[in-house]
Amino acid sequence: MCLLLPRFHRRRVSFTLRKSKQITTPARRTTVQAAATAKGRHRSSAGAAMEVKCRRLEGKVAVVTASTQGIGLAIAERLGLEGAAVVISSRKQKNVDEAVERLKAKGITVVGAVCHVSDAQQRKGLIDTAVKNFGHIDILVSNAAANPTVDGILEMKEAVLDKLWDINVKASILLLQDAAPHLRKGSSVIIISSITGYNPEQGLAMYGVTKTALLGLTKALAAEMGPNTRVNCIAPGFVPTRFASFLTTNETIIGLCGRHGCGCRIPGL
Q1: HEC profile for the chain?
Q2: d(CA 151, CA 170)
Q3: pLDDT value, residue 19
Q4: Which residues cross the membrane (predicted)?
Q5: Residue 269: count of CB within 10 angstroms of its CB
Q6: Residues forming the active site
Q7: Which residue, 54, 105, 189, 226, is most buried by CB atoms nearer than 10 A?
Q8: What are the φ/ψ torsions at residue 196 (nearest 5 degrees)?
Q9: What pLDDT shows up at residue 238?
């Protein structure tokens, strides 16, 4: 926690800790050892407590796009462990089936649907699946994204530009249009952007631009959908998922990075 404090606070805390180690008497040593043992027990209890399901989302229904792997699956799992009924999706039925079984094995109430977010019928089908099974929607997480190229913006073909825009931006809007009639008062919309939205870098430039657009979209939707629905945006940094694997294997990205496989040195991440 010291790392979160201003620099002069960090120094003061470190100094205090050093002084606390100056034990001069057996009685004092015994007291500190007993305290350390108790602290260890407390940490063990805290670790065990972290495994307990808090169930803060009992009675809620969550829909998460692109949620059979990576960040999307982790979000769906956490929402489910908190008590929400979860509707997951993927472009492939096999991935949906495997993820549903994995989540059910953890005691999560879950159903799945095939959904490519650029397909209008499949988007509608995803929302219909949620409503048919649970009657309403409380949480919608728009997580689907694509990054089909590392070409520069001026070199990018129109079809690639269309794909990036359709999946990364437009699909979130169209999905919300389908979901809005079923969102209950107090509902929450979460849009997954990226840290590259703040600083689109070479090799990820157009992808970053679409993620920048999501920041603006979040602000606009928050004003339009409030106060009944909250709209927030998350901008993750580099997360070593299958989707992000090209960042450590693509020669162009590696060249820009300057260090093979080093996520912390990847431009913009």
Answers
A1: CHHHCCHHHHHHHHHHHHHHCCCCCHHHHHHHHHHHHHHHHHHHHHHHHHCCCCCCCCCCEEEECCCCCHHHHHHHHHHHHCCCEEEEEECCHHHHHHHHHHHHCCCCCEEEEECCCCCHHHHHHHHHHHHHHHCCEEEEEECCCCCCCCCCHHHCCHHHHHHHHHHHHHHHHHHHHHHHHHEEEEEEEEEECCHHHCCCCCCCHHHHHHHHHHHHHHHHHHHHHCCCEEEEEECCCCCCCCCCHHHHCCHHHHHHHCCCCCHHHCCCC
A2: 21
A3: 39
A4: none
A5: 19
A6: 207
A7: 189
A8: -70, -15
A9: 65
State pTM to two decimals: 0.73
What letter represents residue 198's amino acid? Y
- What's residue 255's pLDDT? 56
Give the length of the chain: 269
Tokens of 153: 């913006």
Contact residues for 54 (Cβ-Cβ < 8 A; gap 6+): 82, 83
10 Å CB burial of residue 148 (0-12, 13-18, 19+) is middle
Neighbours of 179 (CB within 10 A): 22
At 86-134, the pLDDT tens digits run 999 999 999 999 999 999 999 999 999 999 999 999 999 999 999 999 9
Residue whose C-alpha is closest to residue 269's, from 202, 189, 184, 178: 202
- For the chain, state the CA radius of gyration: 23
Question: 88 with 102: CB under 8 angstroms?
Answer: no
For residue 85, what are the β-bridge partners? 61
Residue at token pair 């090209």: 246
Give the CA-trace dihedral at 126, 128, 131, 137, to 10 degrees: 40
